[in-house]
Design goal:
alpha+beta, Alpha-Beta Plaits, two-stranded antiparallel sheet, 6 helices, four-stranded antiparallel sheet
């Protein structure tokens, strides 16, 4: 993989000067290369990894295993694209194994996620079944460890 992309994946806020020092070259060359990557669609965007415990984010995240019937002439792509367009869907992947799509959904609460699954996702022609798992706690997100240590609030367990 491209060294510049590796740096940006681990620290998208690195300055052009810092990247130029690390890779050799000038800041202007680095900025031109980043612009080329963005223009070509190799870099789609930049996002911050946020700790919901510290920001007070109370949204609910669900991971949904979806079994679908592939469409003639379109395979899984058309149905996956349709599912991915819902605003509640934050990620959608074609998978190997016991189910076809892995869909990650975010909602304000359990009811909103359940409503999305019942009224929108499950009602799509070609969706055979779903299995939903709710995120309870983050330990590592996009390669970054969340703060989990001795000072984290945890109930004592006694026999």
């Amino acid at each position: 993989m491209d060294s510049l992309i590796d740096i940006l994946k681990s620290d998208a806020r690195a300055s052009a000067e810092d990247i130029a020092r690390r890779l050799g070259g000038t800041p202007d060359e680095i900025l031109d290369r980043i612009h080329q990557l963005e223009t070509s669609g190799a870099i789609l965007g930049y996002q911050a990894v946020v700790d919901p415990e510290k920001t007070g984010d109370s949204d609910v995240t669900a991971v949904i295993e979806v079994k679908i019937t592939p469409e003639r002439g379109g395979g899984f792509d058309r149905l996956a694209s349709r599912i991915a367009k819902f605003e509640q869907v934050i990620s959608c992947y074609l998978m190997s194994g016991g189910y076809d799509l892995l869909v990650i959904v975010r909602g304000r609460d359990l009811r909103e996620v359940a409503r999305f699954i019942a009224e929108k996702l499950s009602s799509i022609e070609g969706v055979l079944s779903t299995a939903t798992h709710f995120r309870l706690k983050n330990y590592k997100v996009n390669g970054l460890l969340m703060e989990v240590g001795a000072d984290s609030p945890r109930l004592a367990v006694a026999p």
